[in-house]
Amino acid sequence: MRIIDAPREGWYPDPDGRQRLRWWDGLDWTDIRRAPPSSAELTRAEALVPREPIAADQRAYTDRPQGYSRQETQEIIAEVRTVARQELDRAAEQFSQRATTAVRSFTPLITQYTSKFLRWVKIALGIATVLFIAWLLFQAIATQSFIAWLGDRIDSLTEDAGSTQLRMGSGPFRNSVMSR
Question: How does 51-67 read in b/e, with b if 16+ C-beta sit within 10 Å?
């Protein structure tokens, strides 16, 4: 149905159930329902309707809903547009502020994982450094101990060799050890 062919706004029998009336807004049914008018209400409504016949040229004017003039309507539309633009600007500004706050507080996952990775690398380097220093100390102590032990062994061998030579040169077996 075209909008021009649609019935005027008003109370009509409810298409879902004829016992009630339903409000037609000129384009679609609303959810507003009411009981049918009583005979007293019908009498009162008929008394308010003028009984004069309306000429054909006046009928087009009276079919038009009574309300604001064209200039007033244009002013209202301009005011609504201005308010809508202001509200849109306010909402855009608020969204922009929220987006800026979200971007500033957002840390990319790669940064989070990179920082964790770097933390583990630093810990591993610290442990490796401590182990290396411990190894160097062990090597220094072990080398010193080994050199001291080796020196003692050499000293004890030289002392044993010197005492053996003394024993060999001055004892009764000197000729028999020398002859071999």
Answer: eeeeeeeeeeeeeeeee
DSSP 91: H
Q: d(Cα 175, Cα 168) in Å, to the nearest integer? A: 9
How many CB atoms within 10 Å of residue 170? 8
Amino acid in the structure at residue 147:
I
DSSP single-letter state for residue 12: E
- Which strand (E) or helix (H) includes residue 32? strand 29-34
What lies within 8 Å, CB to CB, of 168 at 6+ separation is 174, 177
Q: Are 33 and 16 in contact (CB under 8 A)?
A: no
C-alpha distance from residue 70 to each of 4, 8, 26, 83 (Å) = 20, 21, 20, 20
pLDDT tens track, the chain, 180 positions: 566 777 888 888 878 776 788 888 888 888 888 887 777 777 776 777 666 655 555 555 555 555 678 888 888 888 899 999 999 999 999 999 999 998 888 777 777 777 788 889 999 999 999 999 999 999 999 888 888 888 888 888 888 776 766 666 555 555 554 554
